[in-house]
């Protein structure tokens, strides 16, 4: 079974057995009708277009960003830029670093430490998110080692080695220790591979679906299992949480990574987007994009969403 098929089947199985989270099919049908009528604009691209920067530079930037595209459980403690969310603050920090110093090379990534990450992302060090910065550094070192050991230090070579297969690239990236996004639920493995999948999506967008960014199976990507899209689905009435889980989230209690409730939230979110895709004819990743953008609404952001400290989202 392909990696992406494993994600789908595992999430569907969890949704069928879940005790903390329910998918309301009536609300899902209403949301499908709304999404079917709505435009789904592309997210603004944070990386330079391939034609301007060159394949290696673009691939290196996308891979480096998505290696550290996590940490939402720490974001309430993150030093944020004015008017920017935690994720946008981190993305802006890396963008500015690349503008000053060029895209991260394999050797630079392999030597990263917490102080490096603090400087790039504008965080005090020592400071309140030192444990997150240490994880960022580990993730960059893992990527640097992968590039050096298998791809002659070239990010573009790593991407091209997938042979235009999103599934194959997800498997390669998801094999890095901090990106091995697989939980256990009811004794069975449940794969998500959120960061590996969103890396493929960002590459496809950055390269305009051509060259290294052409993936013949890109529409097979699932929703990117994080904590915002499930929250948007919950606000739309599609995901319904039991009283105990809803109370913990409202009080800001961190969920344990891999706990039944945390797995159910992510898996039911992915499965709900699959059901939306079947009803609208739109690819799950495109629907994820539309739902993520809805999540920027201040009214939605004002309601607490689940938080979890892990290296996946």
What does this structure look like?
There is one protein chain. Strands 1-4 form a two-stranded antiparallel sheet. The chain has a two-stranded antiparallel sheet with strand order 2-3. The radius of gyration is 19 Å and the shape is globular. The chain is mostly helical and 313 residues long. Helix 1 (3-17) packs across helix 14 (260-280), helix 7 (114-121) crosses helix 8 (130-150) and helix 10 (166-173) crosses helix 11. It is 55% helix and 4% strand. The chain has helices at residues 3-17, 25-37, 50-53, 55-67, 86-101, 106-110, 114-121, 130-150, 155-160, 166-173, 194-206, 229-235, 243-250, 260-280, 284-294, 298-301; strands spanning 21-23, 182-185, 188-191, 239-241.
Note the topology.
Elements: H1 3-17, E1 21-23, H2 25-37, H3 50-53, H4 55-67, H5 86-101, H6 106-110, H7 114-121, H8 130-150, H9 155-160, H10 166-173, E2 182-185, E3 188-191, H11 194-206, H12 229-235, E4 239-241, H13 243-250, H14 260-280, H15 284-294, H16 298-301
Antiparallel strand pairs: 1-4, 2-3
Helix pairs in contact: 1-14, 2-14, 4-11, 7-8, 10-11
């Amino acid at each position: 079974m392909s990696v992406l098929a494993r994600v789908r089947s595992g999430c569907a199985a969890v949704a069928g057995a879940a005790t903390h989270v329910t998918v309301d099919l009536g609300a899902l049908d209403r949301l499908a009708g709304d999404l079917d009528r709505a435009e789904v604009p592309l997210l603004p691209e944070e990386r330079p277009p391939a034609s301007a920067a060159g394949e290696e530079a673009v691939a290196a930037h996308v891979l480096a960003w998505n290696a550290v595209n996590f940490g939402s459980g720490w974001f309430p403690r993150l030093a944020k830029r004015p008017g920017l969310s935690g994720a946008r603050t981190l993305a802006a920090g890396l963008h500015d670093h690349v503008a000053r110093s060029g895209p991260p090379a394999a050797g630079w990534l392999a030597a990263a430490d917490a102080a490096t990450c603090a400087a790039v992302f504008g965080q005090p060090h020592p400071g309140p998110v030192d444990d997150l910065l240490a994880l960022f550094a580990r993730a960059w070192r893992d990527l640097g080692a992968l590039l050096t050991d298998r791809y002659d230090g070239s990010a573009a070579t790593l991407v091209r080695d997938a042979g235009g297969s999103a599934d194959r690239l997800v498997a390669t990236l998801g094999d890095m220790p901090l990106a091995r996004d697989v939980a256990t639920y009811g004794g069975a493995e449940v794969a998500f591979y959120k960061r590996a999948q969103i890396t493929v999506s960002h590459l496809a967008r950055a390269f305009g679906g051509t060259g290294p960014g052409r993936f013949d199976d890109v529409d097979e990507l699932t929703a990117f299992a994080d904590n915002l899209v499930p929250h948007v689905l919950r606000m739309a009435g599609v995901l319904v949480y039991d009283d105990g889980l809803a109370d913990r989230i409202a009080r800001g209690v961190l969920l344990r990574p891999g706990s039944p409730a945390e797995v159910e939230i992510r898996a039911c979110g992915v499965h709900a987007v699959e059901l939306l895709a079947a009803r609208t004819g739109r690819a799950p990743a495109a629907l994820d994009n539309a739902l993520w953008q809805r999540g920027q609404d201040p009214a939605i952001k004002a309601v607490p969403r689940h938080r979890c400290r892990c290296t996946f989202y």
